[in-house]
What does this fold into?
Amino acid sequence: MKNITTKQYKANENLAKILGFSGLIPFIIAFITLNFNVSKIQVLEIIIVYGYTIIAFLGGIYWGVGLNIKIGAKKYFFISTLPTIFVLISLLFPLSLISKIIYLICILNFFLYLEFSFLQTLKLPKWFLFLRIKLNIFLTLLLIMIALSAYLSI
It folds into this structure.
């Protein structure tokens, strides 16, 4: 019975990794696309909306943590609303697209910092934190490359 549970746990871990890294594909395509003669503004807008969707997903993680702990859930429910608030702030102000990408990078890294801060209380598996670190590094680098590519070609 324990062997079946371990296999299922490993299968879930592998699926999460595959889906997580698959989520980087649109950013890779955007970076490649920006180097061709296409509407750079449209590509950047799509990437920003997709990035905001990922930010909202991070809020869902904290909501799920709040549902699964007995003490201190209010803090996680509050934190789970922050991604939406941060995205809304970005939409309310007339920022340039490159500024929005930089803002997106800041939000992503802020939430990774929170996950390090709450490591003991989050009760998340270690593999998840390692996955988040890798995805965060790759996504931050991709967003920097996208912003630089867009800036240098404008």
Notes: The chain has a mean pLDDT of 87. The longest helix spans residues 40-68. The CA atoms of residues 27 and 142 lie 7 Å apart. DSSP finds seven helices and no strands in the chain.
